[in-house]
Design a protein that fits this description.
Length: 101
């Protein structure tokens, strides 16, 4: 099996990224009227992207998480708010996802 992010060796120290392997989970969406498969991958930035998966994929949605590490002592400034399961349903149904700010 090919690993998503292979271990990195720097100065003899090995850094393992196995905890960042892609995975899939299911959410029950009342809006979509069914369970939605969500495939998660990680990258090295600070946001996330969720979109419909290609028709030939087994999952319904792809979620890319771009960093779990906040770089300052203050929490991020979030604009708007929407529950994750509602967001999944809206993406799947191709509905607008903007929030009040």
């Amino acid at each position: 099996m090919t690993v998503y992010l292979p271990p990195l060796t720097i100065g003899g120290q090995v850094y393992d990224f196995a905890h960042l392997e892609p995975f899939t989970f299911t959410v029950q969406s009342d809006l979509a009227g069914r369970d939605l498969g969500v495939h998660v991958t990680f990258s090295s930035h600070m946001f996330f992207e969720i979109r419909r998966a290609a028709k030939d994929k087994p999952q319904d949605l792809n979620l890319v998480v771009e960093s779990a590490y906040h770089q300052t002592d203050k929490p991020p400034r979030l604009l708007g708010r929407m529950g994750f399961i509602l967001l999944c349903g809206k993406i799947h149904m191709r509905q607008p996802t903007s929030t009040k700010r």
